[in-house]
């Protein structure tokens, strides 16, 4: 280690891992010596700082190595969405070392101002995990995500707003059947299967079987890949609608974006007279389907398999309030029976 004075300022000149490190501009010899010793100490502790590493490049490598092999497609999409939000705020070439605590907190504040708590939390979880890894590996000396607060200010939709009434559900189903666009056909498939959007988007032509079943390629868990019963007339209708469109060489009939399908759903709800404050999302179709089936007396265990949940406990937790309503109705029926006999 060499400490020297140049142009009335102190500087250091050291070699680390066969690389020469020099820096000048220190007011005193003591400051230059302390900075040089800190750099040496950082290297000894594994802090091999890469001052040119682009965050986007680091993040994608981390996701593809540590996350993608172990998570569902929908979870992977969330990690990519988090990166898109980051690059939209900071640009494609933001260096990992240049992300400061204030920068990161401002990103969460800006995003959370128009999002729900859950959405803001997911964004923070994805990005924070990457920064934690970079810090643990000694790639950055300070973790900008440590202690960050993820607060969403948009109220989470109430349970009632996640469901359509049975009357509106049937009207919506009749309306989408009159439309030729693939977006509306996707909505129809969601309504008769209770599937997730990602599962329908990943379907192949061969998944529409003529044995009164539809194959849903699972995207959430090992148990999500399943065959669900369907009426023959529904399968025939879907095939006839698809025949009006060119066959895609990818083998996927429903290659549309979530945004396009959601836009079509909003338009359909408007056209059949559903008040805007009662509009639901694509996932709300799944909730509505389950609500109607439970009301029909379908067993919870049967619905759990139909929805592709890993176990009945998940179904019970998600639809706890519906089950409570059914329990009250069942209690009433039991009392009426006992009073009549």
Automatic annotation (TrEMBL):
Alphabetical keyword list: DNA integration, DNA recombination, DNA-binding
Domain Core-binding (CB) span(s) in chain numbering: 53-135
Pfam families, per the entry: Arm-DNA-bind_4, Phage_integrase
Signal peptide (UniProt feature, chain positions): none
Top-level taxon: Bacteria
Keyword DNA-binding (UniProt): yes
Keyword ATP-binding: no
Gene3D superfamilies: 1.10.150.130, Intergrase catalytic core
CDD domains from the UniProt entry: INT_ICEBs1_C_like
Domain Tyr recombinase: 159-332
Family of the protein in this entry: Belongs to the 'phage' integrase family.
Name used for this protein in its record: Tyrosine-type recombinase/integrase
Organism per entry: Salinicoccus sesuvii
Lineage of the species this protein comes from: Bacteria, Bacillati, Bacillota, Bacilli, Bacillales
């Amino acid at each position: 280690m060499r400490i020297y004075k140049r142009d009335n300022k102190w500087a250091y000149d050291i070699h680390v891992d066969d690389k020469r490190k020099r820096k000048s501009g220190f007011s005193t010899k003591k400051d230059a010596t302390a900075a040089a010793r800190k750099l040496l100490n950082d290297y000894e502790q594994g802090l091999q700082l890469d001052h040119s590493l682009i965050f986007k490049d680091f993040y994608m490598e981390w996701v593809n190595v540590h996350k993608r092999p172990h998570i569902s497609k929908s979870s992977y999409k969330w990690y990519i969405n988090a990166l898109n939000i980051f690059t939209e705020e900071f640009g494609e070439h933001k260096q990992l070392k240049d992300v400061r605590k204030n920068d990161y907190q401002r990103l969460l504040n800006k995003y959370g101002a128009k999002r729900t708590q859950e959405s803001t939390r997911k964004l923070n979880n994805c990005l924070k995990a990457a920064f934690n890894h970079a810090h643990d590996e000694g790639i950055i000396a300070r973790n900008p995500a440590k202690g960050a607060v993820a607060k969403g200010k948009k109220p989470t939709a109430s349970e009632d707003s996640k469901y359509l009434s049975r009357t509106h559900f049937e009207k919506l189903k009749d309306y989408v059947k009159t439309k030729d666009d693939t977006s509306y056909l996707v909505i129809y498939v969601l309504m008769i299967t209770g599937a997730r959007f990602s599962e329908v988007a990943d379907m192949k032509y061969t998944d529409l079987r003529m044995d009164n079943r539809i194959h849903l390629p699972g995207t959430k868990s090992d148990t999500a890949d399943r065959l669900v019963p369907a009426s023959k007339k529904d399968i025939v209708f879907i095939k006839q609608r698809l025949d009006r469109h060119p066959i895609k060489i990818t083998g996927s009939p429903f290659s549309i974006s979530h945004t396009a399908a959601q836009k079509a759903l909003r338009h359909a709800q408007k056209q059949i007279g559903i008040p805007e404050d009662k509009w639901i999302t694509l996932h709300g179709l799944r909730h509505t389907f389950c609500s109607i089936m439970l009301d029909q007396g379908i067993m919870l265990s049967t619905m759990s398999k139909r929805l592709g949940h890993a176990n009945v406990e998940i179904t019970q937790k998600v639809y706890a309030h519906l089950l409570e309503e059914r329990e009250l109705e069942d209690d009433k029926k039991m009392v009426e029976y006992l009073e009549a006999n």
